[in-house]
Structures are given as structure tokens and as C-alpha cells.
TrEMBL record:
<dbReference type="InterPro" id="IPR003760">
    <property type="entry name" value="PnrA-like"/>
</dbReference>
<feature type="signal peptide">
    <location>
        <begin position="1"/>
        <end position="25"/>
    </location>
</feature>
<keyword id="KW-0472">Membrane</keyword>
<keyword id="KW-1003">Cell membrane</keyword>
<keyword id="KW-0449">Lipoprotein</keyword>
<protein>
    <submittedName>
        <fullName>Basic membrane protein A</fullName>
    </submittedName>
</protein>
<dbReference type="GO" id="GO:0005886">
    <property type="term" value="C:plasma membrane"/>
</dbReference>
<dbReference type="Pfam" id="PF02608">
    <property type="entry name" value="Bmp"/>
</dbReference>
<feature type="domain" description="ABC transporter substrate-binding protein PnrA-like">
    <location>
        <begin position="48"/>
        <end position="341"/>
    </location>
</feature>
<dbReference type="InterPro" id="IPR050957">
    <property type="entry name" value="BMP_lipoprotein"/>
</dbReference>
<keyword id="KW-0732">Signal</keyword>
Amino acid sequence: MIERFRAGVLAAALTLLLTGCSAVMVPVSPADSSGLGRETVRVGIAYDSAGRGDKSFNDAAAAGIDRAKQELLIEASEAKTQAETDEARAEALRGLAAGGSNPVIAVGFLYATAVGTVAEEFPGTLFAIIDDDSVTADNVVSLLFSEEQGSYLVGVAAALATRKDRVAFVGGVDVALIHKFEAGYVAGVHSVDPGIRVDVRYLTRPPDFGGFSAPAKGKAAAARLIAGGADVVYAAAGGSGSGVFQAVAAGRKAWAIGVDSDQYATADEAVRSRILTSMLKRVDNGVFQEIQAFVKGDRAGGKKRYDLKVDGVGYATSNQQLGPYQSGMEKARYRILSGAVRVPVS
């Protein structure tokens, strides 16, 4: 009897040793019969129509997935919408969930309706949605970011860098989420000098969400703003930002500020030197940390906030020409962290 018991323990130990090299082992108690402790975690991620390669929002989310593959040994399936409709988005999520992905991550607030629908169809799957908290279900978690805080910091940089006391903001689509970027930017500019003028342009308004993927519109809007006197242009416009960079580079004496990821690092050589900094929205951290939490057994819905305190937002320092303005940006960061400054969201 004792020998059989020892043999059983040895066999179990060998099984764990052999499988631990190729699979993520989620701790479960002996009473847990779900089988999760013996499975590889398979994550699904649904991008918007731009997908990987937008050098902005989607690529930031993709970076989180890539990190999770390497560090957490997860498997991943990726999808993107084939049309800008709620049904197309639901089909993307449905395909991932039906294929065994859990959790399923939806990249962007436009997925809200689709997440609400598909989460009901797959109650045993956890859905995470970035930038939306309108869906309240036990199996839906909202990943939210304090974009206004990061935008405040690059607003400080814009105010310190302008030579004309006139800067600009280009928003992709005129919606509440992008208003947060605008509000933080304007507040940051005016914290340095209330007399600096901030010109604002949006590329489209709902129901047209194409402003996030219209570089030609971004270029035309930025060109008009520069012609009007602005010499720093902050683009919170997704893929349309590349057009803004082109207009700024053509102006030569103007600066561009990117968004979401370090766009200096990925921009074409022809425009790179004119990207002063970027507001970093650490979607990569949010995606990675949500997957990590799932692996550790956190399957609950709710809301998770990523702000300056948890490195959820920040700014890029790749362009050395930002150097003269960093001291002012860091002072602003400490004021926000200390609570001395509360950045507006609208």
C-alpha cells in the first residue's frame, strides 16, 4: 500500500515537471475539477479594422499579447473586424470564443455593443474591453486609462516648445473618449501659460468613425492648423496621425506629438525628427496584466484603471530634442501624483 502511494506521488511529480516547460500551469486546489490547472491559456484578441500595423493603438495592444506569449507561455488567436458594424465585431468575438479562447480581449470602445451580446452567449468566457465601461456583466472586465494625465504632460511640452504661443490638437473622432485627450492637453498647455492659444479640429463625428484611419484627412487638417499659425500639433487620431506627421514635416518649423505608442520609434524617416514626443497609453501593460491576472486565477468582471501611478500613461523620450522640456514635464507629473493637480476629463 505504501509503495503504491509513493509511486503515485512520483508519477504526479514527473507529470508536473514535464508539462511545466510547455504550458502555463494555473494553480488549482485538489477540489477544483475545472481542469484549468492542466491547460494552456489561450487568449483571443479582436482588433479594430486597422489591425496590427497601425503604429498606434492596435500595435500597443499587440505588444501586450506578444509579451504574454513570451513571458507567460500563452497561446493567442487574433482577429479583426471586416466591416465597421456591430455585427461584424460580434462575429469576430464569437469566432474567438467558439474557438476556445478565454479570455477574449476587445480592442476599443466600438466593441461595446458586441461584447454585451457575445458575453451573454458565452457566460463561461471572460471578456475584456479596452476604453469602455458601459457593459456590466460578471464575465466582462473594463480596462480603462487616464489618457487625460498623459495628455497633460505632453501639453506642458507643447507649451514650452512653441515659439508662436499657438498650438493645436487633432482628434480622430469627436467622442467622449477623445475629449479626455483634448481636455488634458489644453490643461497642460495652460498650466504653463494661459495665454497660449489651442486650436482644435476633429476629423469625423459619429456615426462616422473613419477619422481613426484617414491619414489624408489628418494631413489636411494639420496643414490648415499650421498655416493658421500653430507650431505644435498633438494628434490623438489613431492611424490618421501619420498624415498629421507628414503635414508637420512639410512645415519644417513645427513639431508633432504622437499618441498611444512611441511613434518616433516607428515613424518613417522623413517625419521622425519632427515628432517631439508621444503620449504613451500603456495598452500593452493593460493587456499583459489582464492576461497575467487570468493566469493567476482572477476571472472576475469589473473595472481596472491604469493611470500615472501604475505606469498606465506617460510620455516618450526617444527624441533627444525633448531634453530641454523634460524638467517641466517631470514637475507636472509629480504635481499630478501628489494630488496637487487634478486633470480635467472634459
